[in-house]
Each structure stands twice: as C-alpha cells, then as structure tokens.
Amino acid sequence: MDTEQLQLILQSAWASVPALLVGARLTIGFALAAMVLGLPLGLAVTLLRLYAPGPVRWLAGLYVSFIRGTPLLVQIFVIYYGLPSFGIILDPVVGGVLALTLNAAAYLSETIRAAILSIPRGQHEAAYSVGLSKAETMRLIILPQAARVALPSLGNSLIGLVKDTSLVSVITVVELLRSAQLVIARTFEPFGPYLAAALIYWAISSALEVVQRRLERRFSRGG
Q: What CATH number should be reported for the domain holding residue 67?
C-alpha cells in the first residue's frame, strides 16, 4: 500500500465519521435497552430456576438452554421474519431490541444464578433466624451481596451487547455497522468506513470498561 492509497483510506474513514456517529447512538441505545430490560427478566428466570416448582423450573432452564445453544443471528431471524407467519409483525427496532433482550436475559440469568449460589447458605439461615421471610432475605441480604459478585460479568455482558448490536443490521436497523455499509454503498470504498466503525466500537467498549472498573472499585470499598 503506497502513501496515496493510505491517505485515501484515512480520508474515507474520516469522512464517514459523522454518519457513523449517528448510527453509534442507536447502537448504544440498543445495548442499554437490552441490558435494562434483560436484567429484570434474567433475575426472574434465575429465581424461577432456583425456587419455582419442578415444571416451571424446567421451563426456565429450557429457555436458557435454547437461547444459549442457538446463534443470536438465528434468534433475530426467527423473531423478525418468523413471527409474521403467526400474524405478529414487528418494527425492525422493536424486533431487534426484543431479540437482544431475550438473548441477554438468558446469559444474565446464569451470571445472577452463579452470584446468588456463591453466597454462603448460612446467611440465609441467619436471616430466617431473625424473622425475615424468604423474599425479604433475598431482597435485603442475598441480592445486594450477589450484585457485587456479579458486577464484573454484568459489565462484560453490556460490552458484549454493544458488539452484538451489529447483528441487527440484517433487519435493516441503521445502527453503527449498517451506517458503515450505507456509506460504502455511496463511496465504493469499504476499508475506511469499516475501519472507522471498528474504532468507534472500540472507543465505546473502552469507555464502558473504564466505568466498569470504577464501579468495581466503589463496590469493593463498600460504597
């Protein structure tokens, strides 16, 4: 690659940045929405797997197994292209958020379950001995401690979601990757826009890593 080619690539990358930043906002929005919606769903699935009657526990485990055992891309196709066969037609943004949320919830439930199980059983018994119910014990004693244990994995899950949002480009959602593809369709120069998109993904992930480390330090101090 000579100097002129390199200059053209860098110019192409720089010229694509404004359009890519617009898509990046949607990428961040998708990841945050899936995390915010996936956390309570993942917690609910965890509690069902730990404390529900046998059949319900089995169904919750089946959901986690199915989601973790199939590619996210296939899940997106099933939700967006498969559900219309049953009369359920979703907007691309809604379909994308739904797919990411259901996927995230399954993985988050495993993180939360491991964190809850890491809390010594004696803490449950101590809470019961002072008159706390099972629900109060979980809410006041177990979950706050489990949150500290799960925090690193939850942060990693959010970073993973940022990258997973690129898959919703297949259903015409104009997030970061799709924005790069649209730029390429106009300029016929792929390397620059893809390089710029990769750097933006990296910048978002790096910023989230900084936030994650600060939260971990704060929680480790008990703040």
A: 1.10.3720.10
